[in-house]
Amino acid sequence: MENAAIERNNVGIKDLLQYKSFMIKLIAYSISRFGDSIDAIAYAWMVYELTGSKLLMETLFAVNAVPNIVLSPFAGAFAYMVL
Length: 83
Known about the structure:
This protein is an all-alpha fold. The chain has one domain (2-82). It has helices at 2-9, 13-16, 20-51, 54-82.
């Protein structure tokens, strides 16, 4: 068990980039995150244009961030258990 942990720490990004499946997932994740960011900005901008309220715009940003803030600790713990 200890040897596996030591071997795991020696893996670098160059080693991971050699795997096609990893590259595909990395690119897909990057595109998805970019789309999520554009989506959040577009919705906030639309709310501001329709209402003129900066408070509603910021509330939308906050509500959009809540799932990440709430679920991140659990997702991290789950990933640690699985890996």
